[in-house]
Amino acid sequence: MLHYEWLGSRDPEAPVVVMSAGLGGAGAYWLPQVEALGAGFRVLLYDQLGTGQSAAVLPEGYSVENMAEEVVELAESLGLERFDFVGHAFGGLVGLWLARKRPALLRRLVVAGGWVSLDSHSRRCFDARIALLTKVGARAYLAAQPIFLFPADWLSANAERVDREQASHLAHFPGAGNVLKRIEALAGFDARSWITEIETPTLVITARDDVLVPWTASRRLAELMPQGRFECLDYGGHACSVTASDEFDRRLVEFLQS
To answer: Where are the beta strands (DSSP E) in the chain?
Structure first.
C-alpha cells in the first residue's frame, strides 16, 4: 500500500488533485504547491512504491505501467472516481499512462518536465548518474543530483538548504537497486505510438533552462497531444515548481480551474 497524505481544502466536495513526484518519488516534493492549491482543492500527496514511506523492494522489470496501476489501486481504496493528476517528470509519465489506460479517472492532467520518449541528452545525463551510483556510491549520486534539478544561481543562493536536503536524502536513500530499476522504467517509457490518442486536457509545463530534460522535448509532447497546452517558464530548471514556485503555481491553478 502506498503511503499518502491529504492536504489542502477540508471541503469533502472540493475537487481532488493527485500529485506524483519525479525520480525521487516522495510526495513531499509538491509541498511548495499545497498553499496555492489548498483554497480550492483537496490535495493528495503519495510516496511512490520503493521510495519515502512506501517501503518495498521493487521487482525486476518494474515499469511506468506498474506505477500507474498502483495509483489506480490507491484511488479505488479511497473511493476516488475522478480527479486531476499532476506529475513531475517520472510522475508525469505515470499520468500519461493513466490518460491512455484509465481516461475516465482523469479530469485534467499536468506534466512538468515530461517527454514522449527519452531524449538523447537526458539519456546521457541518466547514464552519468547511473555511473556515479554504481561506481562511486549513493553519496556521490546524491551530491550530483541538484546539478540536474536546479539553476546554478539558485544553488549558490540556497547552498545550506541544499546541503540539509542532501543529508536527509542520504539518510532515507531507498537503495541502489530501487533507484536503478526506477531509472530503467523511465528510460524504457515510449509513447510515440499512442500519444496522439490521448484526449485528456493536458498542460505540459517546463523551464527553458532545464538541463536534464530539454524544453523542446516537453514542447514536442504537448504538440502531439490533441488537447495539449504548452507553457515554458524563462527560469527555474528541471525543478521549476520549487525554484519558481509563484509563477509555476499561477499557471498550474489557472489551468486546473479553467
So the answer is: 4-8, 16-20, 42-46, 83-88, 106-112, 202-207, 228-233
Alpha helices, DSSP H, located in 9-63: 31-38
Radius of gyration of the chain (CA): 17
Give dist(CA 34, CA 31) in Å, integer: 5
**What is the spatial distance between Cα 72 and Cα 199, in angstroms, rounded to a whole number?**
19
pTM, to two decimals: 0.97
Please tell me whether residue 51 adopts helix, strand or coil conformation.
strand
Cell numbers 491553478 correspond to 253
The pLDDT value given to residue 168: 95
Residue 204, amino acid: V
pLDDT tens digits for range 119-159: 999 999 999 999 999 999 999 999 999 999 999 999 999 99
Would you tell me how many other CB atoms lie within 10 Å of the CB of residue 42? 21
- The distance from CA 118 to its chain's CA centroid, rounded to whole angstroms, is 15
Complete DSSP assignment for 103-164: GGGEEEEEEES--SB--HHHHHHHHHHHHIIIII-HHHHHHHHHHHHS-HHHHHHTHHHHHH
User: To which residue does cell 538541463 refer?
Assistant: 211
Angstrom distance (rounded) from CA 124 to CA 144:
14
